[in-house]
Structure formats: structure tokens, C-alpha cells
Amino acid sequence: GAAGKIDESKYRTYEGVRVYEDTWQYGGLRFMPTNGGSVFETFTVPVLISEAKWGVNNWGRSHPNLAKAHIQYGKDNFDGYWGFSPATIPSTNGYTEFGAPPLSVGGYRPDGNRESTRAGPVVSIYSVLLLIEEQPEATMANMERLLKNFPTLNHPVYGMMDSVAVQDGTVAKCILHANTAWALGAVTNFLTDGKLRGYVDKEWGHALQPLLELEEFYFPANT
Asked: Under a CB-based contact definition with an 8 Å cutoff, are residues 127 and 39 in contact?
């Protein structure tokens, strides 16, 4: 609309509350952005909750596009490496947020929100594996490339280290169990056709489904 005018078509009203439901675009892909632009913010939830199945007019449309956008962002900027989320800082084994700014409202940075420790973009293993249901081939290709080029990511005793700075090759010397759990959850759903989510569906689906069905994100007619 004209400058200063509110586009009413992007608002929805739910139980008397007006909600702005505009979506954003990156590389021709339209999606609902997150605050920080991390994989974590969007794709940990569907490890446990059937957002795409029940939210056909919201997350069911956004998730596939946002998954592709995360991958495209890595291809456009970091030699094809993707998977940015809050994780270990490889150079210090501290912790900070990582994300893709074009996919966010607020904007975490791919090189980290902690300015004093920035040393290039940092990819976390769990961020990659969180997209295995949406983009299995791209996920496995990214994993194979990471493990080939940064072999110390795969510890012989403890398994996958948390993260790697993909430009200088520094690998974190720690594992974060919460991140590992999210990765294992996503892989479990991929291998069992959503069995982990099914436990939540069975117990709480009667309450979650009507809430997720309610919301409608704004998508232009030609998308």
C-alpha cells in the first residue's frame, strides 16, 4: 500500500486479537521469519509437535520454504555450508547465538552475537540435522562435506562435537547434550516416520490441533 498505510490484508483476528501475519522472502522463498534467524528457533518445535500437519495455513506452508532458505543462505554466502543456531564458540568453547540475518526479524549473526569472539561463520551439527525431514538429501550432503573437511568433528569416543568455524576450520572441543538431543529427535522422526512426534500427538493432540489449525499466515496469491 501507500507509504504510511497499513495493509489490512496482512492482519488476522483470532478470538478478538488482531495479529500481523506477514511473511518474508529470501531467494524467492516466502516464510515466517524468526527473531534471530536460527534453525533452532523454528525447527526444534516440529521435533515434538505436528505443526506442519495441523497448521496447513501457517507452518505447513512456511517450514518447507524456510528450510530451503537456510540452505540457500549458506550457498549464497559461505561456500555452501549452512546450519546456524545458538551453539558453542569453537575458539573459546564459550556459547553464543548464531543465525542468518535475512531470515530474521532481529538478526543473529552467522559469526556470532558475541563481538569479542567473532572469527567467521559457525555451523552447528544439530542445526544441520534438524532439517533432515524437510531436506534429507541436502542435510546428508552438508554432513558428509563437514565431516570430510573437518574430520575432528567426529570424536572417536564421544561422537559429534558441537560446532565448527567453517572458514578457519576450528572445531569446538565440547558436546552440548541438549543440542545432541534435538539432533537425535529429528533423526528419529526421519527414520520412523514421525514416531517421536506421535507420542505428543497421542497425549496432547486434542488440545494442540485446534490451536494450530486456527492461524493463517499471509502469503500472496501467487506464492
From this structure: yes
As beta bridge partners, residue 104 has 34
pLDDT in tens, 67-101: 999 999 999 999 999 999 999 999 999 999 999 99
Strand pairing of 29-31 and 87-89? unpaired
Q: How far apart are CA 30 and CA 58, in angstroms?
A: 11
Q: Tell me the pLDDT tens digit for each residue of 156-192.
A: 999 999 999 999 999 999 999 999 999 999 999 999 9
Contact by Cβ (8 Å): 179, 87? yes
Q: What is the pLDDT of residues 194-208, one digit of tens each?
A: 999 999 999 999 999
Q: Compute the distance between CA of residue 115 and CA of residue 16 in angstroms, rounded to an integer.
A: 42
Could you tell me which residues come within 8 angstroms of residue 26 by beta carbon, excluding any fewer than 6 positions away?
69, 72, 73, 102, 103
Task: Please give, one letter per residue, the 3-state secondary structure of the chain.
Answer: CCCCCCCHHHEEEECCEEEECCCEEECCEEECCECCCCHHHHHCHHHHCCHHHHCCCCHHHHHHHHHHHHHHHHHHHCCCCCCCCCEEECCCCEEECCCCHHHECCCCCCCCCCHHHCCCCEEEHHHHHCCCCCCHHHHHHHHHHHHHHCHHHEECCCEECCEEECCCCCECCCCCHHHHHHHHHHHHHHHHCCHHHHHHHHHHHHHHHHHHHHCCCCCCCCC
| Burial tier of 62 (Cβ tally within 10 Å: 0-12, 13-18, 19+) | buried
**Beta partners for residue 88, in sequence order:** 95
